[in-house]
Amino acid sequence: MNYSDFQHLKFDLRPDGVLLVTLNRPEVMNATNARLHWELTKIWDVMNHDPKVRVIVVTGAGDRAFSAGGDLSWISETAGHPDRVAENLKEAGDIVFNMLACEKPIISAINGVAVGAGLAVALMADISIMAEEAKITDGHVRIGVSAGDHAVISWPLLCGMAKAKYYLMTAEFVDGKEAERIGLVSLCVPRAQLLDRAMTVASKLANGSQHAIRYTKRSLNNWMRSSQSAFDASLALEMLCFMGDDIKEGLAAVKEKREPRFPSARDH
Questions:
Q1: How far is CA 104 from each of CA 70, 209, 234, rounded to the nearest angstrom?
Q2: How far is Cα 100 from Cα 268, in angstroms, rounded to an integer?
Q3: Which side of the chain, N or C, has fewer Cβ within a 10 Å radius?
Q4: φ and ψ at residue 32, rounded to 5 degrees
Q5: In the 8-state DSSP scheme, what is residue 62?
Q6: pLDDT 10s digits, 31-42
Q7: Could you tell me if 238 and 148 are in contact, meaning their C-beta atoms sit under 8 angstroms apart?
């Protein structure tokens, strides 16, 4: 594959080897549909093998969102269909482990709301820089699905088990200042300064010792690789939830903008 094969990602290579990658579905707040989800499994290897690229910066198109999570129509088409659930299980794992395998530093510039698969990209980045005004949530339990994707291997390492359990089980939103305070992101800055700060950090890495920086990334990523059994279990359990009744109610509640009434929470 090459860059022209990607429909929903935009690329801007700077002279110093910094590649700015933009999630580009602004009309739906950069939500991931089937195509974008698949593209997010493939792009890391393409960039990893591009000799012109030294550092990768990922952001979202527009001012409102990094990525508003999974497109509701795509999730609805997946729920209850074993073949599509199995496909999503593979792709969700590929996003995480292909980001880990990419030897080049990845910086996320979280410019707005980030949820679900988009949040996986934002927080699996080696350095995450978030706008103070932006808000993030794992969001899975809101639609009746257990936390999977990246969350089980990354959140406890980033912000500790107590905070990870609280935010993953309640799906409350976290703004940039709080995310930085608890260690969920590397830095937060005012939105107007976000991309400049991300590109400054990227330029510093691009001009540093490439072997030293890449080997440091590889070594630190072993903490997450060592948790692969927990990740695989979380992903399987998440996909199990896609075959249940709660997700149907969760999706209906989101579409109707009301609180869900999950079947599993009713008295029997």
A1: 26, 12, 27
A2: 44
A3: C
A4: -90, 120
A5: S
A6: 999 999 999 999
A7: yes
